[in-house]
């Protein structure tokens, strides 16, 4: 009986030691890199809803951004600190004041919007792509509201926005998205993170 108790105690001690070693000697997991991004687009493009969904926030609490807001959007291999700027007419002229320090750009457009709004979105994207503080940064361009009947395809958006000639030589991704397809949205952000990592590696080599 005493041998059984001694054996059990020994096993217990080994188990505790193994757990202690696993918890205390392995060390913390490597920190995920963080990137500071700016998110722009016209009012109604769906910027706030997309970011809130990525942060697993309740859609009932989503309120359109009037000034700016900052969200930390977590991914498995990175954390994106996204500064979302309001898209109203009287706010867009101040966007450039918030560009400093950005490492990447998210531009959200409503692919089912009116012709006038689509033209305004094109002008704003062209301005952002050519802005001195943004022109060398990776761009993720999201053609949102693809679930709506009037949504234009990615090819139509690319042609209308003249992305091939304007953004030649730049790092950019154009992807369709909607709140109904979170897998596709997360994949788009994963591609953006890859571009951000590539830019980091280039900076280190320089």
TrEMBL record:
Gene3D superfamilies: P-loop containing nucleotide triphosphate hydrolases. Mg(2+) binds at residues 48, 65. One of its GO terms (molecular function) is GTP binding. Keywords: GTP-binding, Magnesium, Metal-binding, Nucleotide-binding. Pfam families: Arf (PF00025). InterPro entries: ARL15, P-loop_NTPase, Small_GTPase_ARF/SAR. GTP binds at residues 41-48, 87, 144-147. Belongs to the small GTPase superfamily. Arf family. PANTHER family: ADP-RIBOSYLATION FACTOR-LIKE PROTEIN 15. This is ADP-ribosylation factor-like protein 15. It comes from Papio anubis.
């Amino acid at each position: 009986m005493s041998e059984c108790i001694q054996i059990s105690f020994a096993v217990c001690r080994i188990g505790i030691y193994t757990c202690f070693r696993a918890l205390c000697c392995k060390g913390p997991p490597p920190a995920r890199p963080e990137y500071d991004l700016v998110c722009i687009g016209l009012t109604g493009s769906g910027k706030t809803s997309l970011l809130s969904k990525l942060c697993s926030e309740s859609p009932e609490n989503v309120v359109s951004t009037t000034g700016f807001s900052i969200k930390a959007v977590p991914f498995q291999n990175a954390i994106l600190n996204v500064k979302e700027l309001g898209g109203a007419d009287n706010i867009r002229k101040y966007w450039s004041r918030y560009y400093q320090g950005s490492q990447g750009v998210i531009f959200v457009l409503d692919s089912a919007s009116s012709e006038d709004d689509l033209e305004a979105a094109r002008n704003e994207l062209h301005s952002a792509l050519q802005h001195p503080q943004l022109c060398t940064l990776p761009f993720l361009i999201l053609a949102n509201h693809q679930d709506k009947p009037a949504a234009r395809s990615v090819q139509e958006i690319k042609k209308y926005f003249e992305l091939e000639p304007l953004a030649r030589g730049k790092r950019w991704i154009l992807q369709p998205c909607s709140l109904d397809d979170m897998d596709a949205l997360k994949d788009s952000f994963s591609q953006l993170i890859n571009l951000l990592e590539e830019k980091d590696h280039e900076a280190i080599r320089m």
